[in-house]
Write a structure and sequence with these properties.
The structure is a homodimer.
Chain A: H1 14-21, H2 25-32, H3 41-54, H4 60-67, E1 72-77, H5 83-99, E2 102-107, H6 112-124, E3 129-133, H7 139-142, E4 152-155, E5 165-169, H8 171-184, E6 189-194, H9 201-214, E7 221-226, H10 232-251, E8 262-266, H11 269-283, E9 292-296, H12 300-305, E10 308-311, H13 314-329, E11 338-341, E12 344-346
Parallel strand pairs in A: 1-2, 1-3, 3-4, 4-5, 5-11, 6-7, 6-8, 8-9, 9-10
Antiparallel strand pairs in A: 10-12
Helix pairs in contact in A: 1-2, 1-3, 5-13, 8-9
Chain B binds a DNA duplex (16 and 16 nucleotides) through helix 1, helix 2 and helix 4.
Chain lengths: ~350, ~350
Amino acid sequence: MSTPTSGAPRRATISDVAREAGTGKTSISRYLNGELSVLSPQLRARIEAAIERLDYQPNQMARGLKRGRNRLIGMLVADLTNPYSVEVLQGVEAACHALGYMPLICHAANEVDMERRFLQLLTTYRVEGVIVNALGVSEETLRPVGGGGIPAVLVDRSVDGLVTDMVGLDNEGATMLATRHLVERGFDRLWFVVQPFEHISSRRQREAAFRQALKQYPQVSGRTVVLELGDADELAQTLNALDAELDAAIGAQAPGEGARHVALFAANGPVALALARHLHQRHGPDWQKRVALLSIDDPEWAELAGITTIRQPTYDIGYRAVEFLHQRIDGEQSSARDCLLPGELIERASTAR
Amino acid sequence: MSTPTSGAPRRATISDVAREAGTGKTSISRYLNGELSVLSPQLRARIEAAIERLDYQPNQMARGLKRGRNRLIGMLVADLTNPYSVEVLQGVEAACHALGYMPLICHAANEVDMERRFLQLLTTYRVEGVIVNALGVSEETLRPVGGGGIPAVLVDRSVDGLVTDMVGLDNEGATMLATRHLVERGFDRLWFVVQPFEHISSRRQREAAFRQALKQYPQVSGRTVVLELGDADELAQTLNALDAELDAAIGAQAPGEGARHVALFAANGPVALALARHLHQRHGPDWQKRVALLSIDDPEWAELAGITTIRQPTYDIGYRAVEFLHQRIDGEQSSARDCLLPGELIERASTAR
DNA sequence: CTGTTAGCGCGTTCAC
DNA sequence: GTGAACGCGCTAACAG
């Protein structure tokens, strides 16, 4: 019995169903589209039976081709390894579900040319819109998308020269909140640690906000440390250098436990993890007695390690992004909007005195 | 400047290009499909120019409709929150990239009916194959997929009554490896902690392998503890009960630091995290002095916390899955294959004496 | 209420 | 070499 052509017994088409139900394709189509009030109960029953019998499932591709809309939206994620992204994704999925879209998730794995390829691929599949959280896309790359092309909304970061909706964290507020917390807890040497930030607006904003915040506290000193997570060698080198400086800074103070004066302020989760791993490895489980750590982003391990964090409203960010996109797809013409959501301080042992 | 989001200027079609190049659609199509040897260099140049000018991008949907193949494969993931899944995904993506597929990633967020919906959706989009890592799909749900339907390959777990290719961890070997390690380190009270395992083959196998392994070591006692991570209340309750028993077990021994006799063996990363969080919260940063922890899966935080783990060859698992699928799509008729990859022991402080 | 007709954008014979 | 015509599965007028 095994048909040599194996696999596909070629799925039933709308014509098959029509024939099986003894009617025309139109009626089937109408049935599928919920125009049931226009069908005689009798015909309707026959159609249902036929569909059931043939296990018919409409071909979305063909449907989209005809209609001009396929209900697909693209979601470009720079790094799924980052819990932040996954959380945003969950919001995106929920919203898609609610609004009837199917998200096409593309994971660029932190590679710029992958991002470009995916964007082009999405375009090729005629997605109705795109949600972008990328690290290297330039205005030019996004041109076919944002401007006169398909609607796009940016997540977490904006792109220079590109005017589109954006939704993300209120970086300024979050940074202020964190800085104030550290100062209030008595830390007076703050090191803001961040990945190269020239090209990522959110990082840039956080760094700027940090320096801005410091102006309010003349008694505390602050500096920015740049950490390149991509290159393992370079990372190790930077961390070692950082360590030496940290030793110096700490050594200059009272060695007692209650005397921690310096706090590391990680610009995001990955940075915090890199720092924590390094410090743990170098100073053992008690590393937190030497230096405080606070991070924007609230990954699962933060609670385990007792790290104070600024939790982002990730789910909402994703949800709002889809809502924005949906409006654009529906023809919304207003000028580009920004949606900045507030972060929440989760206080834990790492910054306690 | 900038029209806000002017409605789609309707993308150029193949006909547009043909007209622009002063030729017929056929030639364009040939050009696109690389049959360049059949085109006069002159025509070819005109086509290239036209495509460039119109920024033409072939419509994959239409293409797929006609060809019968759209190069789409579905990837159903039960839980993207689990780093394991993301790592597998990276392997899948790499393989897809290499083999020319576009993975349609569906995240079921641990909801069984979502899985069913997605599977149906994928079918509707006529994906050429599916990679499934789900938790609740039954043989029936997968029927249209595995058997006479589109090719499928299972990841990490198999489904009762469904014969398809599967790739995952060598659970037996990994569990043996871990158990032996614990015993060799001198632990003689082993608690295997696992989520409800009746319906998940990999968990079932690990639990069985654990009990099997114990038979080799008459001097050590072992038991299985079931942890339901889904329900927060129930989880807390179980953990508290577990704690009490742990107190008893530990109290019965010498309280000295070097005398740890009981080890927790987490069946996977999420379980390990739940355990670690709870113990940390209850006993503070020094919780590891009371009890050892070892886990299958090697999430990022494991190093930070100094947890000994069995790392799964996640990337390879994903990669192999796509390769299997590719062969099936290409008509491979052999009977269902299993690919069991070995785990690797990563020894860290948590199990040191 | 229902069937007929004409494409959606593209690939593919099959003639020229 | 090149292009016209047909059809993939489906929807949208347009009749009946």
